[in-house]
């Protein structure tokens, strides 16, 4: 999970736009409904950058195009996302870290009171959580 949070922080630095970023951190999610899967979890960190002019967010997206490859990322998609808004989208992988990023640039939609924003999702590959010791009455969990 630390790799995903570090990648998110680095991507925010590369975007280099003064705005407001949403706060929640990375979380783990199951890769499937199969509890017997060998690598059943991935780390996932969705966040957005908003309260910045659309033109500045566009410049931030352009900086990502230039900076991601310099930082060891391979851009696998750079185009439109195919939604109704047909938003610009960059998808990139950092194979050495097992992390991918999906960035979409959204225009302001006044009728829906939606601000212009960069929507960012950083995700790890599936992995297995480390085993933890089971607590019992004779062996209670350790508290910090």
What does this protein look like?
This protein is α+β, with helices and mostly antiparallel strands. It is built from two helices and seven strands; from the N terminus they run H-E-E-E-H-E-E-E-E. Strands 1, 2, 3, 4, 5, 6 and 7 form a seven-stranded antiparallel β-sheet that branches. A hairpin with a 4-residue loop joins strand 5 (88-94) and strand 6. The radius of gyration is 18 Å and the shape is globular.
Reconstruct the topology from this structure.
Elements: H1 2-15, E1 20-21, E2 27-30, E3 41-50, H2 54-70, E4 74-80, E5 88-94, E6 99-106, E7 117-124
Antiparallel strand pairs: 1-3, 2-3, 3-7, 4-5, 5-6, 6-7
Topology as H/E string? HEEEHEEEE
The chain-level structural class is: alpha+beta
Shape: globular
Q: Which regions have little confidence, pLDDT < 50, spanning 5+ residues?
A: none
User: Which range does the strand content fall in?
Assistant: 25-35%
Count of DSSP strands: 7
Largest sheet: 7 strands, antiparallel
**What is the terminal-to-terminal distance?**
21 Å
Mean pLDDT: 87
Radius of gyration: 18 Å
**Helix segment count?**
2
Approximately how much helix is present in the residues?
10-25%
Oligomer: single chain
Write out key terms for the chains shown:
alpha+beta, 2 helices
Concise account of the structure shown:
This protein has 144 residues and is α+β, with helices and mostly antiparallel strands. It is 22% helix and 32% strand.
